[in-house]
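Methods: example folding runs. The two proteins below were folded one after another, and each record is reproduced exactly as written to the output file, sequence line first and structure-token line second.
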Amino acid sequence: MNVTKGSERKSIFESPFYWIYVFSTAGLIGLVLLGPKFLERQVQEERSFQGRERVKQAVAGHVPSTEMSTIEDSWFRLQPLAWVLSVVLIGSWFVVWWQFFRRRRTNY
């Protein structure tokens, strides 16, 4: 049997898109599992900063106007990161599917 170089099938593990898919999946899983703890810590940091700002305002003789952050209303959000990881995951899976799993026409 004469096998040409173009007809050799590469392993899925050699595809960079497969690894992008794997790591973006791991990133989304980590974001789902660790996101709430990270947000709690982020809100604590924001409230600490806002507390210092309120003290500075009070020392200067002004009424403190800085609102304290809550989990629902904080400066930092994880949704953009989740959206980016989701788009990367879907795109890389489509490329992996296209390269390795779709049915190819056979021209005989």
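Second run, written to the same file directly after the first:
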Amino acid sequence: MRTRFFRSTATAAALALALAACGDEANDEQAAPDGEDLEDLDEEALEDMLGDQPDAEDMEDPNEDVEDGVYRGNGVILPVPDGWSLDPMAFQQGTIAAVSEEGTQQLLAQAIDVADMEEMGQSMDLDTILDQQREGIASELGVEPDVDEEVELEGATRAHQLTFTDVPAQQEGAPESTATLILAEDGNGLLGEFSFSAASEDYDQDIETLLVAEAGFDPDSEPAEPMMPEPQPAPEGEGGEMELPEDDG
């Protein structure tokens, strides 16, 4: 079974905005830690920092499952407009990401089984997540949603759209962005997140309309399971066998 972590409620809103408003900055931070240059890292240190990365030729290509401009799988349905393609790397993490040919617009979809998260000690419900998104974006980016309303979404018993317009970029010189985030539930224990984000000048209202009209839950597939963090070896004397004091007698 493939495992991954559904983007946590604290960062779910950033799913729509990160690649547009904060994406360049976030990618820079991931590419090289403060004060370090990847060119200065030896191969072993670089591998330790990045972890195991699958070879491109070994990745499953989700584009092979796109039929008539729509992807169905991992519990979700996502439209893939003409000229767009799904990102295999994002797919490995359990996220369906469709990117425009120019790379300036992106559609995302993912689903989570609430029971899986409860087993990990995380409680989720749609209203709580919506409140966290409104408050988190207002606090971190200083914007309120221009659209905040219930919508109809395929396979959902309830769905809610938040659209943030002309969000200031977090990186100097980067353009403002616009993003639509739709959070939904299917009534059978699944939560879904669907989004469209782009630089404001590239934001296409027709793509937003397409997302609402064609995205949704896929009843014929299951979402990827949440990723559990890799267990880290305990330092000597912590965990494992207890260290006992030596007997002087």
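Comment on the second run: The longest strand covers residues 158-167.
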